[in-house]
Design a protein that fits this description.
This is Outer membrane protein beta-barrel domain-containing protein. This protein is mainly beta. Helix content is 3%, strand content 64%. Strand 5 and strand 6 form a beta hairpin.
């Protein structure tokens, strides 16, 4: 089944774009699409805001996989700087089903730890600049469900067909501050529970390498001053899977 190039261009318009209004910048959830034992997954993604994500996974058996993720951003502007580092590790269950086992269902849970520095600068009419410096560390607990389908459609470019894979990720993340200072003064800790639905499309370049577009949102269940929702997921990346099931 062919896929019109104009439809692909529409996919590259994010359905949610928001400013850096929270001390938490969501990373790209790991969606390794594992199919069998000893399969290795690695991917790299970058957002328009400069958030770099590195995700890896390994299938230790035909149904058990382990994850390791990392992300970092160092965004510097005239009035606001934002820096965050985040690492995660997790494990879970995966299975294939459907026609030719081309559909994949994955369940993963894990832990993470991160740090954020946010600096706001303002200048008064006399030219005096003041800064609001916020530094914090946080722990993260996450659980996610991934559903994906391999090679159900294709994109035709220059008379060549490129198979497309689709996926949906539903992640729940609980973040808890472990340290929070504002202008070097200790502040009350905050936590929040985030609902993070994410959608991705992968364009298959060859048997092992794909390009990925990711778009998602971030919703907070608690009313907080700093640990709020407000940052979406919108990235482009490259995905490598080695040792998995070959789909014709």
């Amino acid at each position: 089944m062919q896929f019109n190039i104009y439809k692909l261009l529409l996919l590259l318009i994010p359905f949610s774009i928001s400013s850096c209004s929270s001390v938490y910048m969501p990373n790209v959830p790991n969606s390794p699409m594992l199919t069998k034992k000893n399969e290795v997954h690695a991917s790299g993604h970058i957002s328009l805001k400069g958030n770099v994500n590195i995700n890896t996974a390994y299938a230790v058996s035909d149904h058990v996989g382990v994850l390791f993720n990392g992300s970092f951003i160092n965004q510097q502007k005239n009035r606001k700087d934002f820096r965050q580092d985040l690492v995660e590790a997790g494990a879970g269950y995966f299975t294939t089903f459907g026609p030719e086992n081309s559909r994949i269902l994955e369940f993963y849970g894990g832990l993470g730890r991160g740090s954020t520095e946010r600096i706001y600068r303002s200048t008064d009419k006399n030219g005096v600049t003041t800064s609001d410096i916020q530094n914090l560390n946080f722990n993260k607990l996450f659980f996610q469900v991934n559903y994906s389908s391999k090679e159900q459609k294709s994109l035709t470019l220059f008379s060549k067909k490129y198979p497309l894979n689709y996926g949906t990720i539903f992640r729940i993340s609980h973040l808890t501050m472990t340290d929070f200072k504002r202008n070097n003064v200790n502040q009350p800790f905050e936590d929040n529970i985030f609902i993070e639905p994410v959608f991705f499309t992968r364009l298959k370049l060859n048997q092992n390498i794909q390009l990925q577009y990711t778009s998602g949102s971030n919703f907070g269940l608690k009313n907080r001053d700093f640990m709020t929702a407000g940052n979406s997921v919108f990235t482009l990346g490259i995905v490598v899977n080695v040792g998995g099931t070959i789909f014709n």
